[in-house]
């Protein structure tokens, strides 16, 4: 399976995870390739997977009255999903789309739930994985609630440099909640200091 070494390293960074646990978990995992602009999850569908990004990156976004509102970017060695839809089986209210060709290890929801019933280690790992994802999302939410657009950009440059380096300016502006022109002005002002 492509990405096996990377996903195992990631899982073991969350908690001690045995070789036996890995053998039990593997049937729930598959490798998948997505082309740029392919949906990993479409708004209105139920999220049946966790995606571990091996190569490339993707974004989460809402489409509101024809306008795209970017809400997150996920790069190599990160998990992306819709936690609410994944856990509850309700339809997703946002999209996940590949921003460039993307390789992922896909965790199948139904198989994970079944395996977790019989393996306390896999169940604990699932909780750790979701906790990591939730902490990351909460951290960004706090930054967006408390900081100005310029401070948010500064935070991303310091803590998520891959986002600022790889995401096109117009998409980054949408993520920061400003117009492209405003973001260009902020960047020029910061460079001239």
TrEMBL record:
Pfam families: cNMP_binding
Organism the protein comes from: Chryseobacterium camelliae
Annotated protein name in UniProt: CRP-like cAMP-binding protein
Stretches assigned to the Cyclic nucleotide-binding domain: 28-115
Taxonomy, superkingdom: Bacteria
CDD domains recorded: CAP_ED
């Amino acid at each position: 399976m492509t990405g096996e070494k990377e996903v195992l390293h990631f899982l073991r960074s969350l908690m001690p995870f045995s070789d036996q646990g890995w053998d039990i978990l593997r049937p729930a995992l598959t490798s998948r390739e997505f082309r740029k602009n392919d949906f990993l999850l479409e708004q209105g569908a139920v999220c049946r997977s966790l995606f571990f990004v091996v190569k490339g990156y993707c974004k989460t976004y809402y489409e509101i009255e024809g306008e795209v509102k970017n809400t997150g970017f996920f790069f190599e060695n990160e998990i992306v999903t819709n936690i609410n839809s994944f856990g509850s089986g309700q339809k997703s209210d946002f999209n996940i789309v590949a921003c460039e060709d993307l390789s992922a290890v896909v965790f199948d929801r139904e198989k994970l739930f079944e395996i977790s019933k019989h393996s306390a280690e896999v169940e604990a790992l699932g909780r750790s994985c979701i906790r990591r994802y939730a902490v990351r999302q909460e951290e960004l939410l706090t930054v967006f609630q408390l900081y100005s657009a310029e401070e948010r950009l500064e935070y991303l440059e310091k803590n998520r440099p891959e986002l600022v380096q790889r995401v096109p300016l117009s998409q980054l502006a949408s993520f920061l909640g400003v117009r492209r022109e405003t973001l260009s002005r902020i960047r020029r002002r910061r460079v001239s200091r």
